[in-house]
Structure formats: structure tokens, C-alpha cells
Amino acid sequence: MKIKIVVEKHSDGYVAYPLGLKGVVVGQGETYEQALADVQSAIKFHVETFGTAVLEEESPVLEAFITEAGVSV
User: Fold this and answer.
1) H helical segments located in the chain
2) Per-residue pLDDT for the chain (73 aa), expressed as one digit of tens each?
3) What is the pTM of this model?
4) CA 13 → CA 4, 34, 44, distances in Å?
């Protein structure tokens, strides 16, 4: 099964989380690859623990985009 995963780079490492999965699943690591591997492991554990009901039959997320926009404050 393919799951879309967001990976964020922070000053102290990387954080990764899936889209279209019921519940909270997060992975982290010092590198992109470590965070991705950690979240994949967390997703597997989440499904094993709570069953396949946590998986969306069809993810509502078709594509994901990251952008920046200026905002007056």
C-alpha cells in the first residue's frame, strides 16, 4: 500500500507523518532517511495495533504541496 508522507526538516532533525491515516503517527530522525524509516515502522505498528480500519480505503489526499506566502500582520 502506498501512503503519502510529509517530511519536515527542523533545526534539530527531521519529522515525518502520513496523510490520510486515522490516528496520530509520527516518525523522527537526524536525517531524512531515518525519519522516513521511523515513520514507516510507526505506521506498521499502528496498523498492527489498531487494525486495518485505520487505513483509508482511498486516501482523500490526491497530491500534497508545500509553499510559502507573505502575510501582512
Assistant:
1) 32-50
2) 888 899 999 999 999 999 888 999 999 999 999 999 999 999 999 999 999 989 877 777 788 888 888 999 8
3) 0.83
4) 20, 10, 22
Per 3-state DSSP, the chain is made up of helix, strand and coil in percentages (nearest 5) of: 30, 25, 45
Which cell goes with 69? 506566502
> Are 41 and 23 within 8 A, CB to CB?
no
Residue in the structure block whose three cell numbers are 482511498: 58
Q: What's the rounded Cα separation, in Å, for the pair 15 and 31?
A: 9
